[in-house]
Amino acid sequence: MSTTAQDPIVQALQDYTTCDVSDALIKLKYRNGGFLSGLTMWSPQRQDGETKIVGPAYTVKYVALSDPAPKLATHYIDSVPPGAVVFVSCPPKTPNAVYGGLMSARAQYLGAVGSVIDGRFRDMQEQRELGYPVFARDTGTAPPAELLKVVAVDVPVKLQTDEQDMEIRPGDYIIGDLNGVVVLPKELAEQAIPLMQKQVAADEKMAAEIKKGMGFTEASKKFRT
């Protein structure tokens, strides 16, 4: 069994949604509750089903060919740790896909729990036949080699959007489900989980009473204070 599978944080996070994680991070004053905008589920199904991924980030950094940084000597996908979430970053507004079906096949074999592509990916049918979770901004058809190169793995990367200034670091926890994708900074995880436990317990009580006719304001005062 991998050390990631034994990680108590990963085990604890299995019980919570991305919304639960964001609620806790907001209470800890972490920006946007860790939400990473624009990333949605494409495989095994498009925004459907019970797919959820939880694991530490294994980051991959693509840059333009004109960047002076040297290209990575080996393919990043061969170094994916078991239990990890592959997080692929590329320059914004890149029309080419930066991730494909062969990458998922290899990642799955090595024990990755899913991939998050901050850009486009391709080979949709292959991804779905693998039953491998992929979250991304969009799809594409062309490979990346004419435009981009991988220069680093396991380095901090920035979310590629003008909406937010968010960083994903190696080992930060990535959680993805139907609601979207959230990053939980590793140093906040132990503080966040008890907050999730308390919030979910309160919301379950609220939901039960609201279904019986209690007003939201009354239920909120009763169970969230």
Automatic annotation (TrEMBL):
Pfam families: RraA-like (PF03737). Substrate binds at residues 100-103, 122-123. GO terms for molecular function: 4-hydroxy-4-methyl-2-oxoglutarate aldolase activity; metal ion binding; oxaloacetate decarboxylase activity. Its cofactor is Mg(2+). SUPFAM superfamilies: RraA-like. It comes from the Eukaryota. Keywords: Magnesium, Metal-binding. This is Uncharacterized protein. It comes from Neoarthrinium moseri.
